[in-house]
Write a structure and sequence with these properties.
13% strand; 4 helices; alpha+beta
Amino acid sequence: MPLLFVTIGAFALSVIAKMLVDHFLLSRFAIIGSFVGFERSVNPGVAFGITFPGHLQEILVAAALVVMVVLALRYHQSRWQQVAFGLILGGAFANIADRFFDGVVTDFVQVGTFPIFNVADSCITIGVVLLLIEALFPGMFKR
């Protein structure tokens, strides 16, 4: 059950954050000087702005999403795996929904020189890290 709830929660949080940014963030908002802040940016590519020609990008994104859904439904034995897959799926669906109308993803979290990212990207990253930790240290997270 956590898989569904976390997926919906990550999706909702990501979409709400994007809507707030689109509505209120008109210029860069510094949090820690020039190192950390909110800065609206659009990304036509996938991770780190990488783009693929023609419809290859949409095909690859759809294929990756199908693979993740299959993996999530098949290998979500522990609660932590369900949470991890839920974060990944919620973030992925949120980025796809964001891209649906104008073909770009809105990014807004700026940290140092790292590429600007969004809440959905953070959910995906945290989910992947949780899966890696559980794979490297089996049993660290109890059922």
